[in-house]
Design brief:
183 residues; alpha/beta; Spore Coat Polysaccharide Biosynthesis Protein SpsA, Chain A; seven-stranded mixed beta sheet; 28% helix
């Protein structure tokens, strides 16, 4: 049986938010803790790819992004460089509405493809909540070498299973203060 591991990307600059969105309060903890807890439940592990100084106190292993400034594809490069697992659940820290049930359903799709990527009802890939096989490491490096950093482009160029997501609202993310729910 192939192994799985879970990762949460928290290496972004949060420039539109104006502060570290990973540490925004959410349901009694932070966005990052919430995401990592869900990933850990689904994949039996959760490692944060981010700043060990800013995120090290949260109780999860934290690994610094090996190629900072290259966005989520750089984070995926770090994941595939360090993972001990065949399959890797990778989730962005700023998707507060993800559920363990959705992550479990995504992991249940593991099969002959190189990635399992949700596709919203509107046809949009959701590559920041997906499962990637470690054999994609060379493809990630090649994309980085070409300076092709868009995750949408990357997943459309590899053997990715387009998993039909039942509801796109679970993938909503917070990028700026006006997107935060009112308290």
């Amino acid at each position: 049986m192939e192994s799985t591991a879970g990762f949460v990307l928290a290496g972004g600059r949060s420039s539109r938010m104006g502060r570290d969105k990973a540490l925004l309060p959410w349901q009694g903890s932070t966005l990052l803790e919430s995401a990592a807890g869900k990933v850990q439940q689904a994949a039996a592990s959760a490692t944060i790819i981010g700043d060990p100084i800013r995120h090290g106190h949260l109780g999860f292993p934290v690994v610094a992004d090996r190629l900072p400034g290259l966005g989520p594809l750089g984070g995926l490069h770090t994941v595939l460089s360090i993972t001990p697992a065949d399959w890797n659940l990778v989730v962005a820290c700023d998707m507060p509405y993800l559920t363990v049930e959705l992550l479990d359903a995504l992991l249940a799709q593991i099969g002959p493809h190189d990635a399992i990527v949700p596709r919203s009802p509107d046809g949009r890939w959701e590559p920041l909540c997906a499962v990637y096989h470690r054999r994609l490491a060379a493809a990630v490096e090649a994309a980085l070498d070409r300076k092709s950093l868009k995750m949408q482009d990357f997943v459309s160029q590899v053997d990715a299973l387009a998993w039909s997501a039942p509801d796109s609202s679970m993938f909503a993310n917070w990028n700026s203060p006006h997107e935060l729910p009112l308290h």
